[in-house]
Specification:
The chain is of the alpha+beta class. 14% of the residues lie in helices and 29% in strands. A hairpin with a 2-residue loop joins β4 (77-79) and β5 (82-84).
């Protein structure tokens, strides 16, 4: 069972909704605390049935530790520090098939304007209209959207970079920090040892040697990107995006670079070009799976003693993987058995539940 955590810094006396996440408060160095500027809007519930709730007033901000974003997509409601699991705005919920290849995506600024050839008067019109309460003149409100094309429309879908990062990369607070504090730029030093890691594509097996800072629980995710140069580069680009010119603006592209099914909550918005963009506020699950079925992993400094002959190098041993992927995520078969893996002694665990991490990449059908 997933435990709900009360966040005292979000102890609002009125119902509020997370409506946007802007810049990092600072460009972090290795192992520094990472904080993002989160924006909330007050919500007024309807007094009568068959009427819609309203967002009232301008957005206001709170600084949110990066480790707290794991279960907080845009659109989450908060009351007295507790997230409220209720969709009062009736977001669409469906299965979407998206192409995450490089040529089909572009990252744009939230305030990108457009101009159509047949309507010169559209010059300066925003691609996506300003939401009530948003703060375009607040420099920390700046953020980006990942646009995914479909059927010849380059703006068919848009996902806030925050949500791309939250779902695909922030599988634990440890990994969220590693991607954004520059350590992933030196993944061979901080994340996994490439000289002691290998993949056998014929047998669909991976041997992964974790560095001492990594958690056993993240081994499957790390193995999923470690042997894919495109995924590794996209992970490295996360820190580069916030560090370039000290911008502190996250630009996130998924580690996937092919067609992928996702279950998502989204809203249709008429854009400045006169077409409709499906803005994805929350990715619930995905059918992304790496090309292996079995994972064996070990690590540096896990507390075991070396051999008595003076050789301190430890022999690898098998541990059960965090989950075994389904061969077809759309098949109606039993859930995989989950194993609570041991972690290195003395490491502070800052994790969401193992079940929640696993379910990100087990596609669930819309209700």
């Amino acid at each position: 069972m997933t435990q709900t955590i009360r966040r005292t810094y979000l102890d609002f006396e009125e119902l509020c909704q997370l409506t946007w996440v802007g810049r990092l408060v600072s460009v972090p160095g290795p192992k520094e605390n990472i904080v993002v500027r989160a924006y909330f809007t007050k919500v007024l519930l309807p007094a009568q049935e068959n009427t819609k709730p309203k967002r009232i007033g301008d957005a206001f901000w709170r600084d949110m530790p990066i480790g707290d974003i794991l279960d907080v997509p845009i659109g989450t409601l908060f009351y007295q520090g507790m997230p409220i699991n209720k969709d009062i705005f009736s977001f669409r919920n469906s299965l979407l098939t998206l192409n995450f290849s490089d040529g089909n995506m572009k990252i744009i600024d939230r305030w990108t304007s457009v101009e159509t050839e047949d309507d010169p008067s559209s010059s300066g019109k925003l691609l996506l209209p300003r939401a009530p309460g948003s703060l375009p003149h607040d420099s920390n409100y700046k953020g980006t959207l990942l646009c995914i094309g479909a059927n010849g429309d380059p703006f068919a879908y848009a996902i806030p970079s925050y949500e791309v990062f939250r779902f695909f990369y922030a599988v634990s607070s440890r990994m969220a920090s590693v991607f954004l504090d520059s350590r992933f730029l030196e993944w061979g030093r901080y994340v996994w040892n490439p000289e002691r890691s290998s993949i056998d594509l014929e047998r669909k097996e991976v041997l992964l040697w974790l560095r001492q800072w990594m958690l056993d629980q993240d081994a499957w995710f790390i193995a999923s990107i470690a042997f894919d140069p495109i995924s590794v580069k996209r992970g490295m680009d996360l820190y580069r995006s916030v560090a370039v010119d000290q911008s502190r603006i996250l630009r996130a592209v998924p580690p996937i670079h092919d067609w992928t099914n996702i279950k998502a909550k989204w809203v249709p918005i008429k854009n400045g070009l006169g077409t409709t963009t499906k803005v994805i506020l929350q990715i619930i699950s995905s059918d992304w799976h790496p090309p292996f079925d079995k994972l064996r992993f070990d690590r540096d400094n896990d507390g075991r003693r070396g051999n008595d002959d003076g050789n301190t190098e430890k022999e690898p041993f098998s541990r059960p993987p965090a989950h075994l992927p389904k061969s077809n995520p759309l098949e109606n078969i039993d859930e995989p058995v989950l194993t609570d893996l041991p972690s290195s002694p003395g490491l502070p665990l800052e994790l969401i539940s193992l079940e929640e991490v696993t379910m990100r990449f087990e596609l669930s059908m819309p209700e």
